[in-house]
Amino acid sequence: MLIFSWPKYYFCSMIKKTFLLFVLFISVLPLCEAQVFFKTADLFHKPESERRSGYLNIIQYPGVDTLISRYVLANRMLAGRMEGFRIQIFRSANRTAKEESNKERAEFMDEFRDIPSYVEFEKPGYFLVRVGDFRTKVEGTKLLFVVRRKFPNAYLVPDKINFPDLNTN
Predict the structure, then answer these.
(1) From CA 147, how far away is CA 111, in angstroms rounded?
(2) Residues 70-112: pLDDT tens digits?
(3) Greater confidence, 28 or 145?
(4) 98 part of a folded domain
(5) Is residue 74 a part of any domain in this protein?
(6) Residue 41: which residues within 8 A CB-CB, separation 6 or more?
(7) 81 phi and psi, to 5 degrees?
(8) 130: which strand partners?
(9) What is the dihedral of CA 112, 113, 114, 115, to 10 degrees?
């Protein structure tokens, strides 16, 4: 009668593999954390040193906390930018599009020194020149009519803009 026995080295190898998988699982576990959940009370939390008297008790529908969490996370993903509008004065995918976009930007900067301009790359191969940082369509439309005198093909596009300085008059 032939009895099948496992070799000693195979058993040790299996233990090592199991141990490595366990260590890998434990080390990757913190990366699989679900989205961060903010409570409204946490947003208005004051340290003990700043408390003078009383406490804040917020009674509200739990769905409001979910909406606040989504809002905070969406703003974090923008990374210092906000939804707004820019005027697009150039778009091309030619071989010489990069040089043309730099020429258009230089021409714009000569004509309108106070308005910021940006050269951007958009997949699959377009070079864009967009100008201005407008929070609303109305702000952008005011300048669009002025820019169209020099760049007749300019138009307003929604874009992520830098936060405009609200202290300027």
Answers:
(1) 9
(2) 777 776 666 777 889 999 999 999 999 999 999 999 999 999 9
(3) 145
(4) yes
(5) no
(6) 56, 58
(7) -125, 165
(8) 88, 118
(9) 50
**DSSP 3-state assignment of 92?**
strand
* 26, part of any domain: no
Task: Identify the three-state secondary structure at position 130.
Answer: strand
Structural domain boundaries enclosing 116: 82-162
Q: Global pTM?
A: 0.56
Residues paired with residue 128 on neighbouring β-strands, in sequence order: 91, 120
CA angle 75, 77, 82 (to 5 degrees): 50
152 exposed, middle or buried (CB, 10 Å; 0-12, 13-18, 19+)? exposed
CA atoms within 13 A on the CB side of 105: 18
Question: What is the domain count for the chain?
Answer: 1
Residue 92's Cβ-side half-sphere holds a number of Cα atoms within 13 Å equal to: 16
